[in-house]
Each structure stands twice: as C-alpha cells, then as structure tokens.
C-alpha cells in the first residue's frame, strides 16, 4: 500500500531537521530571557512565550526567565493615587513605591508567569533577587545637568538598585532539578532595604554571572534599527557606541544596549534584542538559520 504524500508534513519534518545542529549546539547550555511588561498584556503571546520556554527545557536547554512589569506597576500606582517619575528610564522609587513594585513584580506578575509555564507543562520556580541570596543590590547614583547653570547635579532615585553581587546557586540547583527559574527584578541591599531594579539590568547581570550562551531581550520593535528603519542584524560594542554617538539609538534602547554590552563583556556569549510581538520569535531565532532580531557580541 502506498501512502499519499502530504507536502505540509514534509515541511514540518524539514523544520525539525533544520533545528538539529542548533539542538546539538545548545544542549546543556543556559539561556536567559527577559520578558517585558508590555508583552504580558496579550494572553495569546504570553501562552506562546510559555510554550517556547517549556520547549527549550524539554530539548535540554536551561531557560532562566527574568520578567519586567513596568506598565503593571504604573497602573497600580495610578489606582493608588501615587505619582511616578522616570529619570533615564528608571522609575524614581520611594519607600511606598518600592513596596508596590515588590507586590506587583514578586506577587502578581511572577505568579502569573509561573502559571502560564505550568499551563504549558513546565515546572517554574517563581523567585525574586531576595531568594537564596541570589542578588545583592547597590543604590544607583545618577546626575543630571541643570539646564540653566549647566552644572551636573546629583538626583536621588530613592530605592533604585543595580545588582552588584549575584550568587547563582539557587538558579543552578533549580535548573538541575528540572525547574525553570522565573525571577522578579527586586533585591535587597546590604542595608536590608528592598530595591527596585530595571528588568533588563537584572537579566544582564544574571546572564553574565551564569556565563549564559544567550541573553534574549524581548521588546516591542523588530530589533535595533538604523536611521532608515532597517534591521541591524549584528552589532559589536564598538558599533553600539557609534550608533549612540550619531543619535541612531535613543530612549529605552540606550540602557537596553548598555545592558547587552555589559553582559557580553562580563561572561555572556551573546545578547539578542528580539521582537516579543512576533509569536515564537525566540524559537525562530534559536532553531533556524534565518535568525531574527539583533545579535550583539564582542
Ligand atoms: N535605533 C533604534 N532601534 C529600535 N528601537 C529604538 C531605537 N532607538 C530608540 N528605540 C526605542 O526603544 C524602544 C525599546 O525600548 P523600551 O521601550 O525600553 O523597551 P521595553 O519596554 O521592551 O524594555 C523601542 O520601542 C523604540 O521606541
Ligand atoms: C528601577 C525601575 O525602573 N524598575 C522597573 C522594574 C520593572 C521593569 O523594568 O519592567 P519592564 O521591563 O516591563 O519595563 C519599574 O519600576 O518599572
């Protein structure tokens, strides 16, 4: 008896075969994925994202998720009548704001993501930088130029921190036990206070400490674009400095790419800025020769 030939099945098989060298290359390696607050608003994308992460784990890669939640913190602050101000993309965080940020990030969002991953058949461990001595944060110092006098002045961002010590024992233990760590960007300082950390910065520090094969930053653009709006597929830290100097990159893309530079200079093999609005963008980037987004390496 002959079987009828289904061209769609063949395409699917070819896609799996195309993935083989990547599966072999990345088995046993660690990928850190930063999942931003904007992408979480769409349940379909959240489900796709959870499936991607569970698929990575199923094929022997160790995914570590660091999530944001800026829009959700903003919405909660608004509900409670607390005003929010940003300096260089960082939320000025007083004591009340730090409490709300922790509640939204470590509570609501973290557990929602754990739920999505469970729904996709994975075992997620929801933690923050506070758990297992994962991160110690140091207060971020910033200065701004006074427009009238042109003199640099210190601005107090309150409880905004950056990771200055990372102990990856808990992440590695959980990963080895078959779990997917899901990390909220909140950490204690040596002073025992709670610090609010930009999620990109948190992901970069964790990727560097883990010596991750990749740091994926999922965002709301196709990747880093040139002045004509074309996608730049490969960048080095030197290229990024040029793009910053000639004004090609601005706004939130500046701290994002600074995070990428820091991560690749401190032990992560490469960082990728990727379009989180595209379903399964991560799988396309990892398992096909086409790639997606912008790859940053030394
Ligand atoms: N050259 C550039 N290429 C792509 N995006 C850029 C560029 N310059 C500035 N941006 C801005 O950076 C934004 C991404 O940073 P951000 O809003 O902080 O992302 P997220 O909230 O996902 O962390 C883009 O939406 C875009 O508006
Ligand atoms: C200090 C600081 O700005 N912290 C961020 C933490 C969340 C975050 O970074 O979330 P996204 O990735 O969704 O923007 C904040 O309070 O919004």
UniProtKB/TrEMBL annotation:
Q: Which UniProt keywords apply?
A: Amino-acid biosynthesis, Arginine biosynthesis, ATP-binding, Cytoplasm, Kinase, Nucleotide-binding, Transferase
Q: Which family does it belong to?
A: Belongs to the acetylglutamate kinase family. ArgB subfamily.
One GO BP annotation of this record: L-arginine biosynthetic process via ornithine
Give the Gene Ontology MF terms in alphabetical order: acetylglutamate kinase activity; ATP binding
Associated pathway: Amino-acid biosynthesis; L-arginine biosynthesis; N(2)-acetyl-L-ornithine from L-glutamate: step 2/4
What is this protein's name?
Answer: Acetylglutamate kinase
Keyword Amino-acid biosynthesis: yes or no? yes
The keyword Nucleotide-binding is assigned to this record:
yes
